[in-house]
Amino acid sequence: MTSPFTAPSRECPCGSGAAYDVCCRPLHDGAPAETAEALMRSRYSAYAVGHLDYVFRTWHPRTRPADLTPTPGTTWVGLEVLRTAEGGPSDDVGEVEFRAWFRTPDGEHVLHETSRFERRRGRWVYVDGDVVR
């Protein structure tokens, strides 16, 4: 199946307002994220467009699950970054708090999480997160 976000005129699912081809797609294709927030946004976009190989590659090996099979019928529909702490171009650790909206066959949901990131071998990776209830 071809993703609707592959056309250059399509807005990036991460909510930046930029086109996917100049926003998250370069990261999906191998460019490094400059900040923890950029990595978090690109990971959200990867879920939205079905690039789970990218999600796997950007997850710290010590904490990533063995299987990232998506839940059937899940559609990611929106992202809001609430807060960042550190995670800049010269930092080695960072946090990003966000809300991500999604739909499943049983309705609409929101994931509210504070995620932790660290720089590993010069590249940002997702370490883990705490779900905010």
TrEMBL record:
UniProt name for this protein: UPF0225 protein K1X13_18300
Highest taxon in the source lineage: Bacteria
Similarity field: Belongs to the UPF0225 family.
InterPro entries reported for this sequence: NTF2-like_dom_sf, YchJ-like, YchJ-like_M
Transmembrane regions listed in the UniProt entry: none
Stretches assigned to the YchJ-like middle NTF2-like domain: 35-129
